[in-house]
């Protein structure tokens, strides 16, 4: 698993690694992750692909910049895709899926695009949730911040307990939550205008969704079908927002079935 650093357009350095052989596949984690978020599926995907993961800015060994915007995240992703080899399969989760969607309009010749529950209904988020997360962080209590955020993104209580029992995973989540307020505010301030002018990218697209996902910030399957009329929709049985952690085999199988069909 060679480790590397990638420099984004504004000079920010991003911690990254790649493993496996085959056509390149880039994984983009959500707000609470880093380059280890997909550890349980990297090896499965690497049986067919050269799999690239990276820590988004401000997380897990990556640098940060003095200003923040959705475009900074997109610029970072474009830089990672360039390092991976341009004609990539792009797979994103949650906020990372939203950046994949935005980047797909700027990237030529993607092989495929896999979106796992981007928060396309972010305007449904109660803004006091962001305030409460910030208050918990100001009090030096990241556990309370995570506990405040999780219900809003549909993470069930039993899933929270399982994640808390895994110290490396919980440490990563506690670290990631400190950046969630800026990301959510940017999504609300900038993202709504971008979604209003949204045109689906002309790329083979798979939309993954958990069978039990019910948080209002995620669109229903019928709404997704309207937004992405050419996309394939696939339900992850028995799952919610974190299938790559709670059912990695099914997640990897769904991704590989799609990327294999579009590996040309």
What topology does this entry show?
Blueprint: E1 3-7, E2 13-19, E3 23-28, H1 39-45, E4 49-54, H2 70-84, E5 89-93, H3 95-104, E6 112-116, H4 127-138, H5 142-152, H6 157-164, H7 167-176, H8 180-196, E7 205-210, H9 221-227, E8 232-236, H10 243-246, H11 248-261
Parallel strand pairs: 3-4, 3-5, 5-6, 6-7, 7-8
Antiparallel strand pairs: 1-2, 2-4
Stretches with pLDDT under 50, minimum 5 residues: none
| DSSP helical segment count | 11
Q: What is the strand arrangement across the widest sheet?
A: 1-2-4-3-5-6-7-8
**What global shape is seen?**
globular
Looking at CATH, the homologous superfamily is Alpha/Beta hydrolase fold, catalytic domain
Q: In what range is the share of β-strand residues?
A: 15-25%
Distance between the termini: 25 Å
Helix proportion of residues, in percent? 40-55%
Please name the CATH architecture: 3-Layer(aba) Sandwich
Any idea of the CATH class?
A: Alpha Beta
Profile the largest sheet: 8 strands, mixed
Q: How many discrete structural domains?
A: 1
Average predicted local confidence, pLDDT: 93
Q: And the CATH topology?
A: Rossmann fold
Order of helices and strands: EEEHEHEHEHHHHHEHEHH
Structural class: alpha/beta
Report the C-alpha radius of gyration, rounded: 17 Å
């Amino acid at each position: 698993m060679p480790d590397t650093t990638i420099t984004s357009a504004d000079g920010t350095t991003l911690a990254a690694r790649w493993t496996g052989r085959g056509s390149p596949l880039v994984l983009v984690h959500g707000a609470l992750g880093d380059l280890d978020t997909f550890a349980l599926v990297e090896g499965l995907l690497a049986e067919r692909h050269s799999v690239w993961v990276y820590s988004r800015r401000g997380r897990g060994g990556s640098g940060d910049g003095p200003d923040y915007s959705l475009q900074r995240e997109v610029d970072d992703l474009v830089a990672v895709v360039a390092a991976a080899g341009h004609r990539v399969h792009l797979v994103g989760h949650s906020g990372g899926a939203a950046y994949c969607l935005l980047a797909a309009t700027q990237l030529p010749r993607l092989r495929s695009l896999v979106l796992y529950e981007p928060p396309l209904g972010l305007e449904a988020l109660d803004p006091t949730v962001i305030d409460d997360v910030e208050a918990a962080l100001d009090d030096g209590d990241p556990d309370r911040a995570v506990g405040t955020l999780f219900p809003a993104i549909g993470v069930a209580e039993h899933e929270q307990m399982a994640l808390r029992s895994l110290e490396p995973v919980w440490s990563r989540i506690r670290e990631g939550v400190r950046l969630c307020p800026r990301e959510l505010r940017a999504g609300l301030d900038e993202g709504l205008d971008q979604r209003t002018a949204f045109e689906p990218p002309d790329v083979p697209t798979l939309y993954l969704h958990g069978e039990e996902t019910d948080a209002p910030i995620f669109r229903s399957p019928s709404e997704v079908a309207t937004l992405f009329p050419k996309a394939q929709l696939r339900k992850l049985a028995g799952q919610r927002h974190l299938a790559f952690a709670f059912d990695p085999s099914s997640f990897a199988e769904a991704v590989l079935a799609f990327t294999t069909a579009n590996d040309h």
